Amino acid sequence: MNTYAGATHANPLNVHWIQDSTALYICSAFAGYTDGTTNDPQQRFVSRLLVSELTVGAVEQDTPPANSFSIHPNPTRSGTVFHYQLASDQGVGRIELRDISGRLVSTLPMPGAEGQQNVDTSALAPGTYLVLYLADNTLLHSGKLVVQQ
User: What kind of fold does domain 68-147 have according to CATH?
Assistant: First the structure.
C-alpha cells in the first residue's frame, strides 16, 4: 500500500512470481495517479521487479544441515533398515524399537554420525512398532514401523 500525505494511493491486487523465479509482478489499482504529465484517477498497471536487483536489510546465513532418518522397507515382513545421518556429533546414539504398549523390543547402536542398522523382523509379531533415534538420552526423531505377516 502506498500512502502519501495521509492518503492511500494504491492497493496491491495480486503478486505473481514467474516460473523461473527471476522476476516478481505486482498488479495494483491506483487512485489519483500522476507522474507529472499524466493524471488518471483510475490508472491500473503491472510492475515487474527483477529479483536479482532486490536487496534485503538482513544478512542471509547458511542454515545448518538437518538430521535425516528413514526406515525402508516400511511396511515390512522379514526385515528393514534404519538409516540415519546426523548433522553434527551428538554424542553416543542408539535406536530403540518399542512395541505399541511402549515395551522395549530391541536396542541398536548408532555409532558415528551416519550409518544404518539392518533388523530382522521375521520373529516380531505383526503390528505397529515405534522407532526412536536417541543421542545422549535426547530424542532426535521418532517413526513407526509396520510389521506384516
Answer: Immunoglobulin-like (2.60.40)
